[in-house]
Design a protein that fits this description.
homohexamer, 6 helices, 64% helix, AhpD-like, 2 domains
Chain lengths: 135, 135, 135, 135, 135, 135
């Protein structure tokens, strides 16, 4: 299922092709996954999204594996099956062990449970957790 | 706002008090936050939840800071303000730097954006990301 | 916080007043809660929503208490604090005991946890659970 | 997958058939999509839902295309794949161009991103955005 | 689709097998559904989750049918297709009639609608619904 | 509540100040709302987010009012109270009438209701709504 046709390489506009070239160069792989092939109908959003992904998921204070695990956690909470599959694969490719994956899932489940308990009970935030928004 | 009264120490049942004692011992702190005071009306759920939290958030393959950051990410996606405040405080207490926090937030936002783009486009999962569920 | 002013009785249009009259008659109470006072700016949606609520929450196969408990469960999952407060109050008014409330919360939390585990693992639906959509 | 059998025309109750007749008349088409065929097991909810859809999506202050685009946006945020497919098709049928569709998706993604950033940061609402709920 | 292989009986670790034995004994059935076969990669989470399910869904103040219906309601709100299918089947097995199922769905839909109306309008909680969190 | 201090103008880094200057210039207003003051701790995300907002919400195929209304719809579905308040204010500033606002809310509520009905029933997508993802 999809709401647009996935574009093959020879159906890309020049603008979309330039982004695909960069994806291939940065990832050192010829494989371009379906997300980008769906997004390629709109080269402007394609480029902005790819640039943001490079920025956000590139080198920084957190290591690449942790970044992908955070991406998986959010994707589960949002119920995006595609994203779960692609970022779980990416996390494994970046070194996530099965033990770490098990703990990730357990934390996501646990957080979901306590998130809902807290919300159902309407628990007020403790003074101790507050940061003064203004002086 | 709350749907139950938060129980003070002298309003606890014996069963709830035993859990509070364990919380204080494990955390090496006298402070017991409001979540447990709301949950204390139901000692069975209080005990089960606390035992699960100890299991899931205790020593394992992932370090404590990463565990708390995953908890924060899920809590943001579920919109639980209390949980966001308590686990952001916990992540900081376990060493999360402001640079790491900034990256965490950026990843949560980025994942939310691509989760919705993918869902809107109905992108089919690439063969490359599939794990055979059965042989 | 609100995005519209809550209308007091003497600010209602004739159409909105007629709905308020029916709310008071059906509920046998003079109290009209804030939801209807916010919705009263749009008498058409006010009337349609009130009529639907009467239909859905009125006498049927499920008893009124169970209906309110289902309403609370969904409201927690959607993170609607107002709805949680109003329908928890309604469930209590219709006989929900604190023991039942504790179990409701425990189920909502448990479902949240397994929902996310299942989604994270991408578990395929068992044959045994399928209903043939078409012959 | 489905939790009920989809009803074909000759399996409808008289009440459900009457609603199907109205759907066909209003839409000037013989095609009745699967949603209504699943809902037809419960003629009361079928009728109420169809009447509400006619009310909400019928002529008003907003044009039909904009209404469908809002429906798509909400359906993406709720992760309802069926609804995304049916209302994206409806929006296109009512004149949504591919350029407009691209912007719709970009806005949904952008909103998702900033929604989560704001929630994660716990940003307090500015005075300037508040409407006084009461005088 | 799945992110792990579903384990067959002869692929289970000793720890996982012990949980499967208990599932079969408690349910008085040889059938073990896919959720547990996916979770079996992590015997610790498998055991904790199964023990929690037994606790939460076992005998209590609410009858088994009502418990399953609450589980279905939450699973719909979280968009977990697997969970919807498995718990709808369980609710039917525990006596949920089609009339009750119709009302459950109508309530979930109605709650979703008013949850979003309330959230959009930012309705403040009425004094009458508040429980004093602290004295 | 907030997890970071909101930065006043004289607490901004040079990088953050440059973004604030651009916000003020583009919006032709001295007012910079709290979202940007919270985000200002991370000038990189501040700049990327502001640039994306300008791109996505700037002139295009859809008019500014419709864009803001889509933003409001998504923010309601995600339960972001701050975003609802800020973008409802923006939509009104760009010409949204109260009649249009009433219809927006009604559509969001209606979509939420049918989204959940469809999800609960597990309705399969009609052939007629499918776009071939690949030739």
């Amino acid at each position: 299922m999809a709401t647009v046709k996935l574009l093959s390489d020879d159906e890309l506009s020049a603008d979309a092709r330039a982004v695909f070239d960069d994806i291939r160069m940065v990832r050192k792989s010829d494989f371009v996954n379906n997300f980008w092939r769906a997004l390629a109908h709109d080269p402007k959003t394609l480029r902005r999204t790819w640039n943001s992904i490079k920025d956000v998921m590139g080198p920084g204070a957190l290591d690449p594996k942790t970044k992908e695990m955070l991406y998986v956690a959010v994707s589960i909470a949002h119920g995006c099956s595609y994203c779960i599959h692609s970022h779980t694969a990416a996390a494994r490719a970046k070194g996530m062990t099965e033990a770490e994956y098990g703990e990730l899932l357990a934390i996501v489940g646990m957080a979901a449970e306590t998130n809902r308990l807290v919300t159902g009970l309407g628990v007020p935030v403790d003074e101790a957790f507050l940061v003064d928004a203004v002086d």
